[in-house]
Specification:
Mean pLDDT: 90
Largest sheet: 2 strands, antiparallel
Strand content: under 5%
Bound molecules: zinc ion
Number of strands: 2
Radius of gyration: 18 Å
Structural class: mainly alpha
CATH class: Mainly Alpha
Distance between the termini: 38 Å
Number of helices: 9
Oligomer: single chain
CATH topology: P1 Nuclease
Shape: globular
CATH architecture: Orthogonal Bundle
Low-confidence stretches: 1-12, 14-21
Strand order of the largest sheet: 1-2
Order of helices and strands: HHHHHHHEHHE
CATH superfamily: P1 Nuclease
Helix content: 55-70%
Length: 259
């Protein structure tokens, strides 16, 4: 894109009160979520995603520039098209696999799926009930990126396998319900610190940390469930026990706690 156009679109976004960061987790964390989830993909797919890590990362960033603002959220009043955006990406990925597109393209498409699954797991994208949200939205995402090395990253194996498209709808409904339950806790934390930055203020036992950490692992888990669903829907196999049935356990990807 020519520099003048980049500047112009940045100006338009700021006039609208938007910036890149208003559309998702930070770009860095979008890439991390896609990469963490790719380790949980069915083995044959995981190998391809490791080989095409660059395309996967690019796909996770693409919706920042090519999706409509409303595609990134779904509020209780019905505004936002996140559910539809996620379903479209899932179906497009299945179609790409069925029609034997290159794995470079498949990886890019799975990165896009990861982006929207991650948005779904982010409580701030499931509600706009707090009128003061714009005072802490950007800071909370920056805080999440800052705190990420200390998250324990896990996959929640009790979330059931996705078999049909009705199960994808259920994943969306459950994600929205979880996000809306957690949403008020974030605003309460910012009121406690007078809307200053949470970076260096919220400690690792705070609700702010807990919500961000659970949302991150939730994003990784749901992306992994969707990858498996997409792979099987297109005729792929998955010999693993994990994700083939709901189990009362979690799979630890990263112990967290790095300083
Ligand atoms: Zn987004």
């Amino acid at each position: 894109m020519p520099r003048a156009r980049i500047l112009l679109s940045a100006m338009l976004l700021s006039l609208l009160g938007l910036s890149d960061a208003t559309l998702a987790w930070t770009p860095e964390l979008q890439e991390r979520i896609a990469a963490d989830a790719a380790r949980l993909a069915p083995p044959d797919l995981a190998r391809q995603l490791a080989r095409h890590a660059r395309e996967l990362a690019a796909g996770a960033r693409e919706p920042f520039t090519d999706a409509a603002p409303g595609d990134h959220y779904a509020d209780p009043d019905g505004s936002g098209n996140l559910a539809e955006a996620l379903r479209l990406e899932v179906d497009a990925a299945i179609e790409a696999l069925r029609s034997r597109r290159t794995f470079a393209e498949i990886a890019r498409r799975l990165g896009r799926v990861s982006h929207f699954a991650a948005d779904l797991a982010l409580p701030l994208h499931t509600s706009a009930d707090d009128r003061a949200e714009s005072r802490y939205y950007d800071d909370y995402l920056a805080y999440a990126e800052w705190a990420r090395p200390r998250f324990a990253v896990v996959a929640y194996e009790h979330r059931p396998p996705l078999v049909g498209s009705g199960d994808v709808d259920r994943l969306v409904a459950e994600g929205l319900a979880r996000g809306r339950a957690a949403y008020p806790g974030i605003g309460a934390e910012y009121r406690r610190i007078d809307f200053r930055s949470g970076i260096g203020r919220f400690d690792d036992r705070s609700t702010a940390f807990g919500v961000a950490s659970l949302a991150y692992s939730g994003a990784v888990t749901d992306t992994a469930r969707l990858q498996r669903y997409i792979w099987l829907a297109a005729g792929g196999a998955d010999p693993r026990q994990a994700f083939s049935r709901a189990r009362d356990r979690i799979l630890v990807l990263d112990q967290g706690g790095a300083p």
